[in-house]
Automatic annotation (TrEMBL):
Residues 1-30, 31-61 form the 4Fe-4S ferredoxin-type domain. Gene3D superfamilies: 3.30.70.20. Residues 85-115 are annotated as: Disordered. It comes from Saccharothrix variisporea. This is NAD-dependent dihydropyrimidine dehydrogenase PreA subunit.
Length: 115
């Protein structure tokens, strides 16, 4: 379940808002998404996977954590945005991994061969 949006990391690109299938986020007054409907989260990880700056944390359980996580602790533990890296979309990804997941990389979503 979505647990945290780091206002310090967020660049207000709205990718998380756009990819969320259950409309969990609202746009905050400062442009940073706000978790407005946490109970609607399906724990699909799409928001975290698509965040280009690893500003989100989705916990694997489908119920809210008893205590909201602290940004500093998530950063120290390496959990903030860690789903992107696990699926090959984060830091250190390889051209092969980029080809294996996600939409096409060419114009209008067309396929681009990476060699």
């Amino acid at each position: 379940m979505i647990e945290l949006v780091s206002a310090q990391r967020c660049i207000a690109c709205d990718k998380c808002v756009k990819v969320c299938p259950t409309n969990v986020f609202d746009r905050g007054a400062d442009g940073v998404p706000v978790i407005s409907r946490q109970d609607d989260c399906q724990t699909c990880f799409q928001c975290e996977a698509n965040c280009p700056v690893d500003a989100l944390f989705v916990a694997p359980q489908t119920r809210p954590l008893p205590e909201p996580p602290e940004v500093d602790e998530l950063e120290r533990s390496g959990l903030l945005g860690s789903h992107r890296e696990k699926i090959g979309w984060g830091r250190g990804r390889t051209p092969g991994a980029a080809r294996a997941v996600g939409p096409g990389l060419g114009p209008a979503g067309g396929t681009v061969l990476i060699s």
